[in-house]
Design brief:
- There is one protein chain.
- Helices cover about 40% and strands about 10% of the residues.
- It contains 9 helices and 6 strands; from the N terminus they run H-H-E-H-E-H-E-H-H-E-H-E-E-H-H.
- It has a single domain (about 10-245), classed as HUPs (Rossmann fold), CATH 3.40.50.620.
- The chain is of the alpha/beta class.
- It has a 6-stranded mixed β-sheet with strand order 3-2-1-4-6-5.
Length: about 250
């Protein structure tokens, strides 16, 4: 990718989103690569459907830096799934972790995920996910970030645009308007693997202590995360305190 010199003020979000409204996901990735050059990165959680975005993006930008936030609390199957996809797709994987070890965090703050409290979960997410992600973006000199968010996943994600900004970084969401059926068709077409926990009833998976299989009582798949207290971990929320707090309800 050629180096990009695009200034934030040069991108008109209204115009760009109208121009890309009818573009397919591959075209959006190509636009991002042409627009942001070496400043373009992507993130992955190695979640249930992560193979889709990893395949889609690396077909266009094979050596794009792929940021993976390893919280230290991921299920063993996630680590093995990550190894499988990294080797299969030859990912340029950049693993980031909190400078505070799990053991040290628990000694100082307790098992924050057991407290059934939004403030405790926010502290956990800030230490184990948000801080490492922000550090990754800085160290990789990222100007734009590709992510696989989809509008139907949470109420907050329904409000997002294909191209926007988050904390001074451009955010590009190529599959924002994809349906579950489109996801399944893509994965089937390219013979890509789902995360193995899908076979055990998981629709979404994060840390082992904050994810569970879907039950008949769940109104939404994201109810299976964070004991139903909240739906977003913080990585894809605005990072100013006021903005983040306004989105921390379980109605996200």
């Amino acid at each position: 990718m050629a180096s990009a010199t695009l200034e934030k003020s040069e991108l008109n979000f209204g115009v760009v989103n109208r121009q890309l409204a009818d573009a397919d996901a591959t075209a959006i990735v190509k636009w991002a690569a042409d627009t942001f050059g070496d400043g373009l990165v992507m993130s992955t959680s190695f979640g249930i459907q992560s193979a889709l975005m990893l395949h889609l993006v690396t077909r266009v930008v094979p050596n794009i830096p792929v940021i993976w936030i390893d919280t230290g609390y991921l299920p063993p199957k996630t680590y093995r799934f990550a190894e499988e996809l990294t080797e299969r797709l030859q990912l340029n994987l950049k693993v980031y972790q909190s400078p505070i070890s799990p053991a040290r965090m628990e000694a100082l703050y307790g098992r924050l995920w057991t407290q059934n409290d939004v403030e405790a979960l926010n502290r956990y997410n800030q230490m184990r996910k948000v801080e490492p992600m922000q550090r990754a973006l800085r160290e990789l000199n990222a100007t734009a970030w590709l992510a696989g968010l989809r509008a139907e996943q949470t109420d907050h994600r329904k409000t997002l645009r294909l191209v926007d900004q988050q904390s001074g970084i451009y955010k590009v969401l190529p599959i924002l308007y994809w349906t579950t059926q489109q996801v399944e068709e893509y994965i089937t077409t390219y013979d890509l693997p789902y995360h193995p926990l899908r076979e055990l009833g998981y629709a979404t998976v994060g840390d082992w202590h904050s994810s569970r299989p879907v039950t008949a009582a769940d109104k939404h798949e994201r109810d299976t995360r964070f004991n139903g207290i909240k739906q977003e971990c913080g990585l894809h929320l605005p990072q100013t305190l006021g903005e983040a707090e306004s989105l921390n309800s379980s109605a996200l």
